[in-house]
């Protein structure tokens, strides 16, 4: 009985990982667009947060992506107390940044 969409999956894969798996099988020329969509699904970031990300925000050693306060969507009263948002990255996400 096949439980997940991933070929070697022994558990029921989450819908997000199923989408990521199937997107990865497309070999269309705008590969960057597919990888960006995969990052949106995997990391759950707002479009502006990912579009404004810079290489200096990526720490491969710590496996994190830091979203600075100025790239976050905040209300004026939230800005004073806001801190950079640190997103943990798994192997799949790190590979997409390569």
Task: Note the topology.
Elements (H helix, E strand, L loop, with lengths): L14 H10 L6 H13 L3 H5 L6 E2 L4 E4 L8 H4 L5 E4 L2 H7 L1
Antiparallel strand pairs: 1-2, 2-3
Helix pairs in contact: 1-2
Summarize the structure.
With about 100 residues, the chain is α+β, with helices and mostly antiparallel strands. The chain is about 40% helix and about 10% strand. It contains five helices and three strands.
Query: What best-fitting shape do the alpha-carbon axes yield?
Result: globular
Helical segment tally? 5
Mean pLDDT: 78
Strand segment count? 3
Fraction of residues in β-strands: 5-15%
- Indicate the radius of gyration in whole angstroms: 16 Å
Task: Give the fraction of residues assigned to helices.
Answer: 25-40%
Instruction: Briefly note the structural class of the backbone.
Output: alpha+beta
Return residue spans where pLDDT drops below 50 for at least 5 consecutive residues. Answer: none
Main β-sheet, spatial strand arrangement: 1-2-3
Domain tally? 1
Report the end-to-end length measured between terminal Cα atoms.
35 Å
Largest sheet: 3 strands, antiparallel
Order of helices and strands, N to C?
A: HHHEEHEH
């Amino acid at each position: 009985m096949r439980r997940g969409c991933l070929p070697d999956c022994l558990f029921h894969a989450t819908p997000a990982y199923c989408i990521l798996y199937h997107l990865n099988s497309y070999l269309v020329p705008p590969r960057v667009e597919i990888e960006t969509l995969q990052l949106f699904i995997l990391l759950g970031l707002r479009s502006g947060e990912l579009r404004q990300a810079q290489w200096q925000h990526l720490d491969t050693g710590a496996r994190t992506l830091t979203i600075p306060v100025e790239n976050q969507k905040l209300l004026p009263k939230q800005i004073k107390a806001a801190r950079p948002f640190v997103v943990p990255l798994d192997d799949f996400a790190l590979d997409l940044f390569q």
